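dumping the sequnces here before i forget
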Amino acid sequence: MALTQMALDSLDFDATVALATTVAPHVDILEIGTPCIKHNGIKLLETLRAKFPNNKILVDLKTMDAGFYEAEPFYKAGADICTVLGCADIGTIKGVIDVANKYGKKAQVDLINVADKKARTQEVAKLGAHIIGVHTGLDQQAAGQTPFADLGLVASLGLGVDISVAGGVKAGTTAQVRDAGATIIVAGAAIYGAADPAASAAEITAIAHAA
Amino acid sequence: MALTQMALDSLDFDATVALATTVAPHVDILEIGTPCIKHNGIKLLETLRAKFPNNKILVDLKTMDAGFYEAEPFYKAGADICTVLGCADIGTIKGVIDVANKYGKKAQVDLINVADKKARTQEVAKLGAHIIGVHTGLDQQAAGQTPFADLGLVASLGLGVDISVAGGVKAGTTAQVRDAGATIIVAGAAIYGAADPAASAAEITAIAHAA
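..and the predicted 3d for all of it:
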C-alpha cells in the first residue's frame, strides 16, 4: 500500500488549478512542481489549499540554502510536505526538518544528484527527515535513467522512513515500485499526458493502494 | 574593477520593491533572492524589470532540474542572469546555458556545496557557462564559513569567465574580494542591514569600481 502523488508541472496558474481539479479526487497528494512554484509563488499554494481540503499538498521547493527561512511560509500557508535537496548543506536540511516539526508537518529530502545516496540517506534519517525522495530528474530521464536501482538501495537500509519515488513512473510500473518499498508514488507525465487524466490517476492509485 | 549586486532577500513583495528603489541607483545588478522568487513568482521580476531599466537583474533560481524549461520564462521576462546549481546534473546546467544563449543573456553556475569545485568549474566553463558563482550559503555562514578560499581557487584557474562572489561580503572586505579576482561582488545584509542602505550600497560600489 502506497500513496499517490500528482506532480503539477505546468507553469500556468489557471491550467494548474484546472488539472488539480480534474485529478484531486483520484490521488492522495497534490505536488506543486519546482518550476510551477517559482513561476507562480505562494499564492498558488494558498489557492490549492483552499480548494482541495481532502488532499495533502507537497511543495517541491528543492531548497538549497536558508532552509528554515525559505520553507516556513509554505508550511504556514498549509503545505503538508516541503522538499529540501540532499545536496544541500546539512544545516539547510536540518532547518527544513526543524520548521516542518514546528508546524507538525513533514520534510522530504530529495536525493536527486546526491553522490553517496546511502550515506546521505542514513545521515538525514538520523536527523529526523520524514521522507526520502528517490528522484530521477527530468533531465536525467531524458538521458535514459530510471529510479529503480536507487529505490532498491534506499529501501534495503530499513530506516523506517517514508520513501517517495519519482521519475517517469506510470501505470505499468506502479506495482513494481510499490512492491520495491515505495510508500509514496509520484506520477506526472503519465497522468497529465494521458487522454483521460482522471482515469489514469485512478488507475495508478488503485494499483498503489492495493496489496 | 568589479560590478556590484544587491541581494533582495525579503519575502514581502512591496518591501522588496521599496528596497530595490532605495538601492538601485547605487548598484549595478539587482538580485531577486531564491526565497523571494519562490514566494512571489515571476510577477516580481516583471515589476522590477519595468521599474529599473538601468539595472541588470539576476534571478537566483538555483535550478536543479528541467534547466531549459524552468529558466526560459525568466529570461523571456527580462532577467539578464539566472542561476543553476553546480550540484545539478550536467544536462540541467547545459539547459540553462542554452536558454541563456537563446535570449542573448547569461547563465551563472552556483558552486554552493559542490564537492569538487575545481573540476566542476572547468567542466561548466568548457560548456559555456558565463559566470561562476562562488557562494557561501547563509546556513554555511552561520557555521562560520567564508568564500575567500574558494574565490582563490576559482580565480587561479584563469578561465576567462566572470566570477561572482557571495557570502557575507561587506564594505570592509570588498577591496580584498575585488583584488582576488571577483568581477561581480554580491552584498545583501551589509546593505539592507545598514542604517542607511543607499549610502552603504554606494560605498561598496565605489570600492568595487575602483582599481
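Chain B touches chain A through 36 residues (CB under 8 Å).
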